[in-house]
Specification:
By secondary structure, this protein is α/β, with parallel strands linked by helices. Helix content is 30%, strand content 19%. The chain contains 9 helices and 9 strands. It has a 6-stranded parallel beta sheet with strand order 3-2-1-7-8-9, with helices on both faces. A hairpin with a 6-residue loop joins strand 4 and strand 5. Helix 6 packs parallel to helix 9. The relative contact order is 0.18.
């Protein structure tokens, strides 16, 4: 019988996409310095000025089409040959999927999708060249649904957090990449790792992680950190 493959669960943040050229939100020079966060990424901001919010995410989509997955994305996808790989990401880009990762759970929504304002379960995927939306955008199913960016705004629930917790509980190896560990509920996933499970944290400026057992910190960018981690995992 074949030995059951170990399950690696990745929890990725903005740092895994930064090396592709995706502008991060929280770092110096990031998007929050260019845009008031509550105007473009909150439920209240969308209610107050939906046109601004649609325009903001149109810009994000245009930027996304100019970049490619980086080596970190590709290594994560390549590990699928040897491990059962699940990706939980705070990122709204599609770089994990474009690199070949087959199981990706988006906590904060997906940039290349729109959803029904009234029914969050109804979504549509945008494909180039038609990637822009406005407050007047209607669904393509002929039902006249008013659409909005498929983004979890500040002030809204994170519907995928329970499935993410279930994945973390199943992990044989848990890897955190490129996140400040300041954004909840995603930062709280660490507490659901089973005792004795190895945890790796890859970040050039890692947050303090007092009291986290079985933790190895790789103080590196995502690409070089994933190179070293993949080598370590395959050697063991």
């Amino acid at each position: 019988m074949n030995e059951k493959r170990k399950k690696i669960v990745f929890s990725t943040g903005a740092g895994v996409s930064a090396e592709s050229g995706i502008t991060t939100f929280r770092d110096a020079g990031g998007l929050w310095e260019q845009y008031p966060v509550m105007q473009v990424a909150s439920a209240e901001g969308f209610a107050a000025d939906p046109e601004l919010v649609h325009r903001f995410y149109n810009e994000r989509r245009r930027q996304l089409l100019t970049v490619q997955p980086n080596e970190a994305h590709r290594i994560i996808a390549d590990l699928q040959r040897d491990f059962d790989v699940e990706v939980i990401t705070q990122n709204v880009d599609d770089l994990h999927e474009r690199a070949g990762s087959e199981k990706v759970l988006h906590l904060h929504g997906e940039l290349m999708k729109l959803r029904d304002i009234d029914d969050p379960d109804y979504t549509e995927t945008l494909t180039p060249p038609d990637i822009e939306s406005t407050p007047a955008t209607l669904s393509r199913d002929g039902k006249g649904r008013h659409m909005r960016p498929h983004i979890v705004f500040f002030g809204e629930a994170v519907p995928n957090i329970e499935p993410a917790i279930d994945l973390v509980r199943e992990a044989d190896i848990f890897v955190v990449i490129g996140t400040s560990l300041n954004v909840y509920p995603a930062a709280g996933l660490l507490q659901f790792v089973r005792p004795g499970t190895p945890i790796y944290y890859i970040d050039p400026n890692p947050a303090a992680t007092p009291g986290v057992p079985d933790l190895t910190v790789l103080r590196e960018p995502a690409t070089s950190g994933m190179r070293h981690l993949a080598e370590k995992l395959r050697n063991h």
